[in-house]
Design brief:
This protein is α/β, with parallel strands linked by helices. The chain has two domains: 232 residues, Amidase signature (AS) enzymes, CATH 3.90.1300.10; 194 residues, Amidase signature (AS) enzymes. The protein is built from 17 helices and eleven strands.
């Protein structure tokens, strides 16, 4: 066994298994022992599944010995956000409202596909309550740690998924992204996160927040890991990342939205990062992009209306169990009429069409993953107005990608709590990952 395995990429672990240098059983035991000994384990994992992990690792070890491995990641241990059903366990979605829910009888589709490919399930990670905040603060179940500062928010809603990676307690984590929930914790904890296009990966067997926007995505240590995990869950071939280059790639950067109200640190980190991409051959185009500000305005009612449609009945009966900030964010959805929803949806589609025309000549658009540094958890819990304002700011940049229906990738920057985000085309994950692999090398 080797402690170094805990900081390796999932792909490198898979290559080690394939070369006979790593036994999946030893690998699983290394992670299980690390989880058990970790002082913050109960703030990362909502529950662990050691029996399942050992059984899956044993089967992966047998396949490795007989050269019948199912995938490069066969035998690699990962975590799953606690909104995905895992047979025999409760899906709590970070809320006490589901305390009486029965255990799931089958795995979520994406988890089942992971198991079929040989991924080893370590357990389920903590999250923002009902996945409806970008901050990752959850006084109901647990607030996961940020590796940079004990008082920094971890980012949400896939807070524990990111922490499982940054604390060395999983090779990767699977989260969800409705308005930034993969990318914000990835950015604030300086790892890689991929927001996939709506519909690419099935969401059956997960607790919905907003069905028109919910997506499945990985939080991990490399673009290669993100591409491989996405291919497993989507049931599609992984893109070939070899030879990826930035030369001649055109990247659009919005001056207006990026700077509005942003902290200086993430902006400076982004500008330094984008300069490295330009030095590696990327062609940068700085412009005012009105579609970004417009989509945030016209589509504002949609996610909250869908969240109320999903959770309103439960909130009206046992909503007193909720963190009041999440409840107050959800309740306005009750007053959004079907006519207002349909008007907003139509406007969203109009802006998407305008964006498609503008983006046609570019390979990607770029901006800081979050316009602000991670805020103070203690202040978020003591200052209601601060919480509301900061939550909206945290989600501002990432939410653009969800409302426009885009694929999106965040890459870590050297500065703590800072990430560089790329917007790709709908169902353009393969091209986006090739661009991201080249950008990853330039940023390193």
């Amino acid at each position: 066994m080797s402690e170094s395995w805990r900081s390796m990429t999932a792909a490198d672990l898979g290559r080690g298994i394939g070369a006979g240098e790593i036994d999946p059983v030893d690998l699983a035991e290394t992670f299980l022992a690390a989880i058990e000994a970790h002082p913050l384990r109960d703030r990362v994992y909502q529950l662990t599944t050691p029996e399942r992990a050992r059984a899956e690792a044993k089967a992966a070890s047998q396949r490795a010995r007989t050269r019948t491995r199912r995938h490069l990641l066969d035998g690699v241990p990962i975590s799953w956000k606690d909104l995905y059903d895992l047979a025999g366990t409760k899906t709590r979605a970070g809320t006490a409202m589901l305390d009486e829910a029965p255990p799931a009888t089958v795995d979520a589709v994406c988890l089942a596909r992971g198991t079929q490919a040989g991924l080893v399930c370590l357990g389920k990670t903590h999250m923002t309550e009902i996945a409806f905040s970008g901050l990752g603060v959850n006084p109901v179940t647990a607030t996961s740690p940020n590796p940079h500062d004990p008082d920094w928010a971890p980012g949400g809603s896939s807070s524990g998924a990111a922490a499982s990676v940054t604390q060395g307690l999983a090779a990767a984590g699977i989260g969800s992204d409705t308005g930034g929930s993969v990318r914000i914790p990835s950015g604030w904890q300086n790892i890689t996160g991929l927001k996939t296009t709506l519909g690419l990966i099935p969401v059956e067997g997960s607790r919905a927040l907003a069905a028109g926007f919910d997506t499945v995505g990985p939080l991990c240590r490399s673009v290669e890991d993100a591409a491989l995990l996405t291919s497993i869950m989507a049931g599609t071939p992984a893109p070939d990342l070899s030879g990826a280059s930035l030369k001649g790639k055109r990247i659009l950067i919005d001056r207006a939205t990026m700077y509005d109200g942003a902290d200086p640190e993430p902006v400076a980190a982004f500008e330094a990062g984008i300069a490295k991409l330009e030095a590696a051959g990327a062609e940068l185009a700085w412009a005012d992009v009105p579609e970004f500000a417009e989509i945030l305005t016209v589509a504002a009612p949609l996610i909250v209306a869908e969240a109320w449609a999903e959770w309103g009945e439960k909130i009206e009966t046992v909503g007193d169990r909720m963190f009041h900030q999440v409840r107050q964010r959800t309740e306005p959805g009750r007053d959004i009429s079907s006519a207002a929803y349909l008007r907003a949806q139509a406007k969203m589609m109009q802006v998407r069409a305008k964006w498609a025309l503008r983006a046609a000549g570019f390979d990607a658009a770029a901006m800081p993953t979050a316009p602000i540094l991670p805020p103070s958890v203690s202040r978020l819990l003591s200052d209601d107005e601060y919480y509301k304002r900061i939550n909206l700011m945290a989600l501002r940049n990432t939410r653009i990608g969800n409302l426009l229906g885009l694929s999106s990738l965040t890459l870590p920057l050297p500065e703590p709590g800072c990430g560089l985000m790329l917007f790709g085309k709908p169902f353009g994950e393969g091209e986006l990952c090739r661009l991201g692999a080249a950008a990853e090398k330039a940023l390193a």
